[in-house]
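Because showing beats explaining, we let one protein speak, sequence and backbone structure tokens together, and leave readers to judge.
___
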Amino acid sequence: MRLLTISGSLREGSYNTALARAAADVAPEGVEVELFNGLGELPLFDADLEGDEHPAVRHLRESIDDADAVLFVTPEYNGSIPGVLKNAVDWASRPRGEAALLNKTVAVAGASTGQYGALWAQQDLRRVLGIAGARVVCPDLPVGRAQDVCDPTGGPSALVVERLRKHVTQLLNEAAPIAVAA
């Protein structure tokens, strides 16, 4: 089984990317976890560019297609989803009827230095993913005050790791029947 993680942060030392990387540590044996790289290389979504696919767009779509499930990890910028992550969802939601996100099992998590753990961004991302055709599962996974629950290298604390383990397990359990049927 393959799990793709996508962090919505481009920042070096991002708490969200650390959370996405930690998914590999908590995934059950036999689950291959890949952290998607290249979010910052995607061109801005433009329907006029759809027929002339950019290599970064192709890489994103193929990575999502090849995964049995996707874990999106989002920071919160101005109370919502970072533009770079929304751009990726827009590219992955096309072309209509055969989009990479169509019927894909996905979950959302998020970390922020504020007390709410990117909850607004997670709610917006869950809505956008659902409209894009993804099968959004699992409750939100907010990691508030990330600077206090991550070690000096940015890795999540044992408590956050345990919460993430439950989240990833639930995501994989939700994706398993679909992966087997595919």
Observations:
- The first helix runs from residue 15 to 26.
- Residues 2-181 form a domain with the Rossmann fold fold (CATH 3.40.50.360).
